[in-house]
């Protein structure tokens, strides 16, 4: 279950982040560079399709595993039409999975007919819905009352911005690899500058929404330190800080070095930028594995309350 959730989150983030990157960064940067735009679009389309297919497959496996978990019977015995239809039709997880399957189909259509600008924006909205709907499959989907609305809002923002950052990093690497052979510093610097803005916005929202989620799910410093959930969340925060460190190196050290080379790229700086971006993604994927674990555990605030009660 943990592995499946992690793979699904990663594939979803890569898909959605690449769509964001294409609209907000690649399109404006490459609008006057037809050859580079065609080359990048060909590569990124293959990447998005691969990630979307992986997201659909892992989502289907997740549904099967969740069906076995909810029914309390072995997986093989749970894979019947009656049991599956009950989970799909009568549980929140099943309903959300059905909606997300529809969003995946809609996104696929938008990817096929993406030459029209209106279709690109519909694809962007669909991609945002595809990742944000994950909020209803986790702890936020079971929180009730006003706190529940706050939790869902924070989780939706957290999911969308995380996907934009992690998935955008993968697209940035593809962009840098595409433009590297053209030895055009202006394209690289423009893309890196725009992605830095996206990164700053993403980090800000991630911090604020993360604080809200932590307050709801952990509740206290004791819950953070004394529970397995809290310790896993601390590890997630440590990974996030490491991602920030490499992002800061890219933004304040390597990007200025690229800009100072004039019309020709600095191979060393560009290679380091690509390497650091790969490392950032690795930390991001590690965070998604931790998220996969956290989703299978009881929130720390519940465990602390239960301990206090007893």
Q: Would you write up a description of this structure?
A:
The chain has 310 residues and is mostly helical. The protein has one domain. The chain is 85% helix and 0% strand. The chain has twelve helices and no strands. The protein has helices at residues 2-30, 34-71, 75-78, 81-90, 92-112, 117-132, 145-180, 185-217, 221-226, 228-259, 267-294, 300-309. The longest helix is centred in the first third of the chain and has 38 residues, at 34-71. The protein starts with a helix and ends with a helix. The model is unreliable at 306-310 (pLDDT under 50).
Topology:
Blueprint: H1 2-30, H2 34-71, H3 75-78, H4 81-90, H5 92-112, H6 117-132, H7 145-180, H8 185-217, H9 221-226, H10 228-259, H11 267-294, H12 300-309
Uncertain regions spanning at least 5 consecutive residues: 306-310
- The percent of residues in helical segments reads over 70%
Q: Write down the secondary-structure element order.
A: HHHHHHHHHHHH
Shape: globular
How many structural domains in the coordinates? 1
Number of strands: 0
Q: How large, in whole angstroms, is the Cα Rg?
A: 21 Å
Instruction: Report the β-strand fraction as a percent range.
Output: under 5%
Summarize the biggest pleated sheet: none
Write down the overall mean pLDDT: 88
Distance between the termini: 31 Å
Return the structural class.
mainly alpha
Per DSSP, the total helix count is 12
Brief digest:
The chain is built from twelve helices and no strands.
């Amino acid at each position: 279950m943990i592995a499946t959730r992690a793979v699904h989150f990663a594939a979803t983030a890569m898909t959605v982040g690449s769509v964001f990157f294409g609209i907000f960064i690649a399109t404006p940067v490459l609008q006057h560079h037809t050859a580079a735009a065609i080359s990048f679009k060909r590569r990124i389309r293959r990447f998005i399709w691969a990630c979307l297919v992986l997201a659909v497959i892992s989502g289907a496996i997740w549904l099967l595993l969740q069906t076995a978990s909810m029914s309390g019977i072995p997986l093989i015995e749970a894979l019947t039409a009656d049991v599956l239809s009950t989970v799909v039709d009568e549980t929140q997880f099943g309903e959300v999975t059905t909606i997300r399957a529809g969003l995946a189909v809609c996104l696929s259509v938008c990817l096929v007919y993406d030459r029209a600008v209106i279709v690109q924006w519909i694809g962007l909205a669909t991609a945002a819905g595809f990742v944000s709907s994950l909020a209803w499959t986790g702890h936020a989907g079971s929180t009730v009352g006003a706190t529940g609305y706050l939790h869902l809002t924070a989780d939706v923002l957290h999911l969308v911005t995380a996907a934009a950052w992690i998935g955008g990093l993968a697209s940035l690497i593809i962009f840098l690899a595409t433009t590297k052979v053209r030895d055009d510093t202006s394209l690289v610097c423009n893309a890196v500058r725009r992605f830095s803005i996206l990164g700053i916005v993403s980090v800000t929202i991630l911090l604020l929404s993360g604080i809200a989620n932590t307050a709801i799910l952990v509740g206290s410093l004791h819950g953070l330190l004394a529970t397995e959930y809290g310790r896993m969340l601390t590890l997630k925060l440590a990974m996030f800080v490491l991602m920030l460190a490499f992002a800061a190196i890219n933004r304040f050290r390597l990007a200025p070095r690229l800009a100072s080379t004039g019309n020709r790229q600095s191979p060393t700086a560009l290679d380091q930028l690509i390497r650091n971006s790969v490392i950032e993604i690795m930390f991001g994927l590690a965070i998604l594995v931790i998220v996969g674990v956290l989703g299978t555990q009881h929130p720390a605030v519940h465990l602390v309350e239960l301990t206090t009660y007893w």
